[in-house]
Amino acid sequence: MTPFAPARLLPLVLLLTALLFALPAAAQSGPGAVAPGGGGGAPAQPGLEGQTPSPDVRSPADVPLYIPHDGRVQGRISIPDPALATLIQPGGRDWRGFRMDWLQWIGGVVILGALAALAVFYFWRGPITIERGRARRWVPRFNSIDRFAHWTTALGFIALMLSGLVLTFGRFVLIPIMGHGSFAPLADWSKYLHMASSVPFVLGLLLMLGLWIRDNIPTRADLIWLRQAGGLFSRHSVHPESGRFNAGQKGLFWLVVLGGLAMALTGYLLMTPFYYTGIAGMQIIHIIHALLAMVLTAVIFGHIYIGTVGMEGAFDAMGRGVVDENWAIEHHKGWYDEQCRAGRIIPGDRMPQAGDD
Ligand code: HEM
Description:
Layout: H1 10-28, E1 67-69, E2 72-74, E3 86-88, H2 90-125, E4 138-140, H3 144-173, H4 175-212, H5 221-227, H6 247-271, H7 279-307, H8 314-319, E5 322-324, H9 325-331, H10 333-341
Antiparallel strand pairs: 1-2, 2-3, 4-5
The chain binds protoporphyrin IX containing FE.
């Protein structure tokens, strides 16, 4: 088999990253563009074109600057973009309330709640061990392309998550600790990291979709796994049978693929402000993006837990690409039987190393 060289994909990733940085600038000068803060949905004010200051206007006090209208605070302007006449719109106040208040609470509860639940689960259940001990025979589970797809997605996601958390909670959590002077460059770099890391995330996600979709189609056996909650909440050995992926993993796969693509779509729309939608659309897109991010972050914490300290032998699958035979029998019996029939079990005391495949 020709060795897979992930480095060959690097120029493509760099090119897409550069294009992505160019997008917001292009959007600002695009046909539907308005200046930031402008109300994309404001009605045009007829008859303002070519207007010159009236001789009656002698001081700013003579100008009827604010005209209350539909709850908006609207002014009169003579520049071409009518959207800029809206100074305040009611939807903006609601959105600001979400951004500055609700999002902090929802995000805090979801993320800290997930961490607390995992800590409780760890102390109550402890790591899920390989009951019959390690067989020291190996079953290949993920080849180098699988692992490349997984780690590209994972690193992209972790960079997105960390930079997203700085942008969301930084004002409230970090500024009191580090001050405005240090936070400003951190927030600036987080913004660039957030945009750039979407490229490996999306490419990895599409690769993962192509590679694993076949093994993630729901089957009848998934119902049994779900009914028993995968045996996760039993302290004794309960291992509902599953194929290559169990129902929990299939759920994660679809959540990550569909949720991740929705994050990407809403994120790219946010990077091209007012290009495809007005201000109300931008606000809805931002709310979807932010709430989905909190849910995915909490779910991924659970995934990282089970892939590391939560389950003995799980990390080998993504680290070395192989799993211990007894791990395979206990967690994925149906898939293990297929591997046996195909003669894929590797004997020997030495765990195959990354790059052997
Ligand atoms: C440090 C971070 C991570 C670790 C340690 C980790 C670990 C693992 C491991 C060990 C597996 C294989 C499980 C098996 O053999 O059955 C796996 C699979 C998978 N990972 Fe990760 N992962 C991490 C981050 C992520 C992230 C950020 C995503 C997506 C955004 C992700 C998505 C997946 C998916 C979809 C699978 C296949 C389904 C499954 O096995 O659950 N992983 N991961």
